[in-house]
What we know:
Elements: E1 2-6, H1 13-24, E2 27-30, H2 31-39, H3 43-50, H4 52-66, E3 72-75, H5 86-93, E4 95-100, H6 103-111, H7 125-143, E5 148-151, H8 157-165
Parallel strand pairs: 1-3, 1-4, 2-3, 4-5
Helix pairs in contact: 1-8, 2-4, 3-4, 6-7
The chain binds shikimate-3-phosphate (S3P).
Amino acid sequence: MRIYLIGFMGCGKTSLGKRLAEKLNFTFFDTDNVIEEQAGMKVPEIFSKLGEATFRDLERKVLSESALIDDVVIATGGGMPCHFDNMDFMLKHGKTIYIRMDPASLADRIENSHKKRPLVDHLKGDALISTIKEKLALREPYYMKADCIVKGESLKPKHVISLLFGEND
Ligand code: S3P
C-alpha cells in the first residue's frame, strides 16, 4: 500500500506522515527531501538557480519513482498535485489524503515554521493570508480529488488509519 499526503504548504504533511508511517510500520519519505538529496541543493536554491519549472520536473521524477516502493507514506510538496498529471498518478498508484486547513491556520504555521518556502517566504500577516487564499482557489480543484479529505487542525495518525482501514488504532 502507498499513502500520499497532499495539501497546502504548512498543513502538516511531514509531521503527520512520519507518525503515520511509524504506526503502520511503513517507510516514510518526503518528496522535497528526496529532491534535495538528488539535486544536492536545497529547495530555495533549486528555485533560484534552476527555476520553478526545473523543480517541477524533479518533483515529477521523484513521484514516478514512488510507484516502485510499497508500504510507504509519502509527504508531497504543496504544489505537486497541481502540475502535470501528478494528481491522477497518485490516485492510480495509492491512497491520497488531502489535509485541509483554513488559510489563517496555514499562515500561522508557515510563519512559525523553520522550513524555507520560496513561494511565500517574503510574505507576512494579511498579505500571506491573501496569497494563500488565491493559491488555494487554484489548487483545491486538484486537492479535492483525493480519496479522503481530513481536517488538518488536531489531526492524529489514528484518524487517518481509521479512515483507511476502519480501525481505531
Ligand atoms: C511548494 C511547497 C513546498 C515545496 C516548494 C513548493 C508549493 O513544500 O515543495 O517550496 O508549491 O506549494 P511543502 O508543501 O512541504 O511546504
